[in-house]
């Protein structure tokens, strides 16, 4: 005998946004779902497709999707350019059965694939041309027979930078009892006797606790599902609106609390519980239909309502790997805590070995491999130095928005690459920001790609000219409310060199953020191997920028470029300062990347210049806070990059989820 749980999975495909897919052509999404039992995949069956628009022939552009065996295939759409949004607005329901037990249900897998055809127009001639699978992800739903409603931004790898905004509603609808009988037993079948044996075993009499246990396992699950759907609908469409009075009556209709039966006969109790299940199941079917109609009518509202909850969920999960300290100061010249980098490294090692960290919870629904394994998860140490009293960490659910912005103001962010780099180096960071903040204009600088061995001052001027040209060419019809800068390595210094040439825009400057930028040069505390490499570049490659970074471009320290750069205007125009570094990075000395003064700077005469440069920079900053972030990576001790201390420097650019965590640390930076 078995009790089957009937579960519906309602998937809303709200909108698609192309972030950086460069292949033009036709695309659609393909879904299937299953769980694994005894090494067998049990697939869900697609039941129904709901579309607000009128039906058109399948696979013509913008026509609705369709059901195909175990698959749902969405509408086909054409991608023509970056930052393009396409409304999908389709809803599909799958149904799947799972054998109930008193243990946790298996994990449900929703497989989503991005399908591609390089044609720009579908005609009779090429309609049969096969679409190929470009990318695929798996969404995992834990204990799915208990139900959940969640927003999921479906994203793939960096080669396929796009997002499909979806909401997924897992709804346990009913339980169906199927006794295992043979032909000889058909006439003797007693349904409620079989059911009582399933619920209570061979007990001849049952107590109050026995009844509560069974009701909680089955009746209460359906009851909670009903209440959860009501809340989901109410929050999405705002029931305070007077226009929704008719629906309001429906949603305010309370489902009576399920009664307890004062009975000891197991068959009578089994019959009572089964009647309760059937009663709630009937109401659930009607409410599921109302949920689908609500999604059809209020596509945007449903997506936004659940997206904000998802943002809070993800923030809390990333927060398990972000450790925050706040120091209130009168000025930014206070010396740093001694050996902060070494201390953070030891703490990170202990955290990764801790039982708690290795058993971090996963959200009830998540994209597989989105969260790294705890053993290799980057750990962030956020040190905030503040001139004002610090309040509780500021966070708003709407700071992250995967959907196309409807506002008229935009935030221009300029990216500058490092030594011997290219505009492509910062593309991963650029795409992550575009994913979270659609109200941004993003410019990856390319004018210095072949010139990073030249004078940094000239590179700064070149960057400034590129920014002015971009604003004139691309922002004439767009209202730019903020202008911010992100630089990696040498790019951070190029930005600082460009700022005096951009003073006309200083009133709009938002944030300045650098990743492993040696603001105080390489005078001290760099790797011996790095020193040798720099000596080679200066000696045989005639690399002038390396001379400037090592402050050997003049015999008088005060006449070197970096010292003079510490005295120029620029950083005081920014409202937010973020300095991202890694103690593991030998390519950018830790305190140099953090523009930080250590206690030994105050006593060691050799480091007088280092101290003066830091003082020159920090004393000009008018922002209320400086955010310093030390990133601890789990780095394999193999390969040349690890040996020379370059691995952390590269991972600043390449680590897939680092920017996700940075945005959680500095979400206010990115506001318009």
List keywords for this structure.
672 residues; alpha/beta; Rossmann fold; eight-stranded antiparallel beta sheet; DUF676 domain-containing protein; DUF3657; AB_hydrolase_fold; coiled coil; DUF676_lipase-like
Describe this structure in words.
- The N and C termini lie far apart (60 Å).
- With 672 residues, this protein is α/β, with parallel strands linked by helices.
- The radius of gyration is 30 Å and the shape is elongated.
- The longest helix has 32 residues, at 266-297.
- Strands 2, 3, 5, 6, 7, 9, 10 and 14 form an eight-stranded antiparallel sheet that branches. It has an eight-stranded mixed sheet with strand order 13-15-21-20-19-18-16-17, with helices on both faces. A five-stranded antiparallel sheet has the order 4-8-1-12-11.
- The relative contact order is 0.10.
- Residues 240-246 and 534-538 have low confidence and may be disordered.
- The chain has two domains: 2-308, Immunoglobulin-like (Sandwich); 322-532 and 574-670, Rossmann fold.
- The protein has helices at 191-200, 208-217, 219-237, 245-252, 266-297, 299-319, 340-353, 355-358, 427-436, 456-474, 490-498, 528-540, 544-549, 561-565, 590-594, 608-620, 639-643, 647-654, 658-665, and strands at residues 2-18, 25-37, 40-43, 45-51, 66-68, 71-73, 77-79, 84-99, 108-117, 132-141, 148-154, 162-178, 322-328, 365-367, 379-386, 409-416, 440-444, 479-488, 509-515, 576-581, 625-632.
């Amino acid at each position: 005998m078995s009790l089957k749980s009937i579960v519906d999975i309602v998937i809303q495909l709200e909108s698609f946004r192309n972030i950086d897919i460069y292949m033009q052509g036709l695309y659609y999404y393909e879904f299937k779902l299953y769980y694994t039992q005894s090494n067998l995949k049990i697939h869900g069956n697609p039941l129904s497709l709901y579309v607000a628009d009128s039906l058109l022939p399948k696979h013509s552009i913008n026509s609705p999707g369709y059901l195909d065996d175990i698959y749902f295939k969405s509408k086909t759409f054409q991608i023509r350019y970056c930052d393009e949004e396409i409304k999908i607005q389709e809803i599909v329901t799958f149904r799947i059965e799972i054998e109930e037990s008193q243990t946790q249900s298996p994990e449900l897998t929703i497989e989503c694939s991005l399908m591609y055809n390089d044609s720009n127009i579908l005609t009779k001639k090429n309609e049969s041309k096969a679409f190929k699978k470009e990318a695929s992800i798996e969404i995992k739903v834990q204990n799915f027979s208990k139900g959940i409603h969640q927003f999921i931004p479906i994203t793939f790898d960096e080669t396929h930078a796009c997002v499909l905004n979806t909401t997924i509603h897992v709804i346990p609808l009913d339980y169906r009892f199927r006794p295992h009988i043979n032909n000889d037993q058909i006439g003797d079948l007693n349904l409620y006797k079989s059911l009582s044996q399933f619920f209570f075993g061979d007990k001849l009499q049952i107590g109050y606790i026995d009844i509560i246990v069974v009701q909680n396992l089955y009746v209460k699950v359906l009851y909670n599902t009903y209440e959860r759907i009501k809340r989901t609908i109410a929050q999405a469409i705002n029931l305070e609106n007077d226009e929704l009075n008719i629906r309001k009556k429906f949603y305010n209709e309370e489902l009576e609390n399920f009664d307890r039966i004062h009975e000891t006969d197991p068959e009578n109790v089994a019959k009572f519980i089964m009647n309760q299940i059937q009663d709630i199941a009937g109401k659930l079917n009607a409410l599921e239909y109302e949920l689908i109609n609500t999604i059809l009518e209020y596509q945007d509202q449903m997506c936004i309502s659940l997206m904000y909850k998802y943002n809070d969920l993800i923030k809390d999960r990333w927060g398990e790997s972000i450790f925050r300290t706040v120091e209130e100061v009168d000025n930014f010249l206070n010396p740093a805590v001694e050996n902060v980098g070494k201390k953070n490294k030891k703490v990170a090692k202990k955290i990764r070995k801790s039982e708690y960290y290795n058993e971090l919870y996963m959200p009830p629904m998540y994209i597989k491999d989105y969260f790294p394994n705890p053993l290799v998860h980057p750990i962030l140490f956020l040190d905030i130095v503040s001139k004002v009293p610090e309040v509780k960490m500021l966070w708003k659910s709407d700071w992250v928005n995967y959907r196309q912005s409807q506002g008229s103001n935009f935030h221009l962010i300029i990216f500058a690459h490092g030594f011997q780099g290219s505009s492509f180096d910062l593309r991963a960071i650029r795409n992550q920001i575009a994913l979270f903040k659609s109200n941004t204009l993003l410019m990856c600088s390319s004018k210095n790609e072949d010139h990073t061995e030249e004078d940094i001052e000239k590179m700064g001027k070149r960057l400034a000219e590129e920014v002015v040209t971009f604003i004139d060419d691309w922002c004439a019809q767009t209202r730019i409310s903020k202008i911010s800068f992100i630089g990696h390595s040498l790019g951070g210094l190029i930005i600082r060199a460009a700022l005096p040439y951009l003073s006309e825009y200083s009133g709009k400057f938002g944030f300045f953020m650098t990743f492993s930028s040696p603001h105080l040069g390489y005078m001290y505390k760099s790797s011996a191997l790095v020193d040798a490499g720099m000596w080679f570049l200066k000696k045989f490659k005639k690399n002038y920028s390396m001379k400037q970074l090592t402050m050997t471009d003049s015999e008088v320290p005060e006449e070197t470029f970096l010292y003079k750069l510490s005295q120029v205007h620029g950083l005081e125009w920014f409202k937010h300062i973020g300095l991202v570094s890694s103690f593991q990075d030998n390519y950018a000395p830790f305190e140099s990347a953090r523009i930080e003064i250590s206690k030994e700077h105050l006593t060691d005469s050799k480091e007088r210049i280092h101290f003066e440069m830091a003082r020159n920079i920090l004393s000009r900053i008018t922002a209320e806070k400086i955010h310093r972030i030390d990133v601890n990576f789990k780095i394999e001790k193999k390969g040349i990059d690890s040996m020379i201390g370059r691995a952390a420097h590269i991972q600043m650019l390449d680590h897939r989820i680092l920017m996700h965590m940075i945005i959680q640390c500095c979400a206010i930076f990115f506001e318009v």
